[in-house]
Backbone:
């Protein structure tokens, strides 16, 4: 076997667990609180935000499932970008994933895992303290070591964590819904929504941006397609089935929370308050422990992708020192050098996330939400892929009428859905905060400052590509 090739080590069940396990982990627990706050406590608008975000995810996943039946190399989205748009675009996509998307998401998950660990022992714990950040840094290093030194164990942990994380969600859905109907909390929550006359619909955009974080991660499953058995069959099944399961779970969980606390309490204290009210101190603590495992499972799945991200472009002969970052360790069959690069950028984004979320942010006006904006950016990257695919398929469809829905209609819908997500980001992280700041006589436009950082990092990546061409 080629020393630079990855082994086929994962099956269909692992792939489905990756989709469900990476997506369901932390966002559903702490973004539910954000969505309620964005929508002013309007449950109907909150559910609408969850549904719209879920539909966008399913539409995009359907298209990538279609791509998965055609293109296979080493990293799903980079493969698709190369085959459909071109080599340069694939390289820039891979560079974005390696330096912004994967490490930014992974760093946030390390903090979230630490946050719920501290809350487990002390509900009043300061989740922006040095202790929280130190524990998050420890989790980063721990999960990195697990993936680099024992990748098979990391895969098994992903499966186990997926099963474990569904336990508290299933309990909250069933018990929370029943209790909410009995004690009247759920009915009251929906009654308030109806009486509000629909609330401020524009707030749904901010809710969708928050839901984007909770839904994101399914695309990461494509990063193991070179290690997936019968990938052209199993990956599409995992993507479509996994995303459908996720949306149903999220909406029912959101409703179930109202059984344990009023909307006002949920807006202020989040899911832990509902768990404590539903199951008591001991039961709430046990379920919070499951949530910690859930978050660590998601962190593990993100690190799986993070360690392989630079490898996906280095193996194509591009990027900094491709001969170094495309090497695979003969003992562990892991791209170790690529993993070190990924961990380094995780550390950078982890420090940024910490500094940007302090009461007095270190980065001042350059502070932006690194948990949401990189995720929305990926939807912007999807757009050229969908458009080019449509352009290529139109010629084929004219000759053979088969596949119009799969190869034309769905990519068009995906293009519109991705463009809508970009608009949502501009509104939620640009127009909305700018309007709010203007009322206070200040200035902030987070999406602009994120774009500056994005352009600088991508320009650096472009330099490496040009050097390789020469």
Residues:
């Amino acid at each position: 076997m080629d020393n630079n090739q990855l082994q086929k080590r994962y099956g269909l069940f692992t792939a489905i667990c990756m989709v469900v396990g990476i997506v369901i982990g932390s966002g559903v627990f702490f973004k539910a609180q954000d969505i309620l706050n964005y929508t002013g406590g309007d449950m109907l608008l909150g559910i609408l935000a969850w549904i719209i975000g879920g539909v966008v995810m399913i539409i995009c996943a359907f298209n990538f499932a279609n791509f998965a039946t055609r293109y296979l190399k080493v990293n799903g989205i980079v493969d698709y970008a190369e085959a459909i748009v071109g080599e340069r675009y694939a390289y820039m996509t891979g560079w974005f994933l390696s330096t912004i998307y994967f490490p930014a998401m992974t760093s946030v998950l390390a903090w979230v895992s630490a946050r719920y660990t501290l809350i487990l022992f002390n509900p009043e714990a300061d989740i922006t303290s040095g202790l929280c950040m130190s524990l998050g840094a420890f989790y980063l290093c721990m999960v990195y070591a697990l993936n680099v030194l024992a990748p098979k164990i990391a895969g098994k942990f992903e499966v186990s964590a997926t099963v474990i994380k569904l336990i508290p969600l299933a309990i909250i859905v069933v018990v929370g819904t029943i209790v909410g109907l009995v004690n009247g909390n759920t009915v009251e929550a929906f009654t308030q929504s109806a009486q509000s006359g629909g609330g401020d619909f524009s707030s749904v955009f901010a809710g969708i941006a928050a839901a984007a974080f909770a839904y994101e991660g399914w695309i990461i499953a494509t990063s193991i397609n070179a290690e997936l058995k019968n990938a052209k069959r199993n990956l599409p099944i995992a993507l479509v089935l996994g995303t459908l399961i996720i949306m149903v779970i999220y909406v029912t969980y959101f409703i179930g929370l109202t059984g344990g606390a009023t909307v006002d309490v949920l807006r202020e204290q989040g899911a832990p308050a509902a768990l404590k009210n539903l199951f008591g101190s001991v039961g709430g603590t046990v379920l919070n422990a499951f949530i910690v495992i859930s978050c660590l499972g998601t962190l593990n799945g993100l690190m799986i992708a993070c360690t392989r991200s630079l490898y996906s472009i280095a193996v194509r002969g591009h990027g900094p020192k491709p001969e170094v970052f495309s090497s695979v360790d003969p003992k562990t069959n892991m791209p170790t050098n690529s993993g070190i690069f990924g961990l380094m950028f995780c550390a950078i984004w982890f420090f940024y996330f910490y500094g940007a979320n302090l009461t007095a942010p270190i980065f001042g006006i350059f502070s932006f939400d690194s948990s949401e904006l990189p995720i929305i950016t990926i939807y912007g990257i999807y757009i050229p892929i969908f458009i080019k695919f449509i352009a290529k398929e139109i010629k084929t469809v004219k000759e053979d009428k088969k596949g119009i829905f799969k190869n034309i209609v769905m990519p068009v819908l995906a293009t519109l859905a991705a463009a809508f997500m970009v608009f949502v980001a501009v509104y939620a992280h640009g127009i909305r905060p700018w309007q709010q700041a203007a009322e206070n006589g200040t200035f902030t436009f987070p999406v602009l400052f994120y774009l500056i950082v994005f352009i600088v990092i991508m320009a650096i990546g472009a330099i490496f590509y040009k050097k390789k061409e020469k």
Q: What stands out?
A: The mean pLDDT is 82. Residues 280 and 371 are 31 Å apart (CA to CA). The chain is about 75% helix and 0% strand.
